[in-house]
Fold this protein.
Amino acid sequence: MPGNRSRRRRGSSHGQGRPRSRTARAQLLFSVSWVEHLLREGHYARRLSPSAPVFLAAVIQYLTAKVLELAGNEACKSGRRRITPELVDMAVHNNALLSGFFGATTISQVAPGRE
């Protein structure tokens, strides 16, 4: 009978009680658990809010995406197909906000003989 169909959606975890990671709940790519591990291991504070590693993972993910986007734009401008450390350095120093944030940072060349 057509009216007797089950209303359950396939593939849905709704109602099943399956645990989801904090990374999945926050829709992030950077691991929230690993960020929390690093914060606790570093002894930066005696107490740690449950939302602190989630927020920090989101900030790290945003900064990484922004730097890679700008470095990709630099690669397209210079006619290259790959993002090199040199292009990352150019992208960071050509952006006013990132230049101030990464002012004292050195981006090293891992393999200087390859091009």
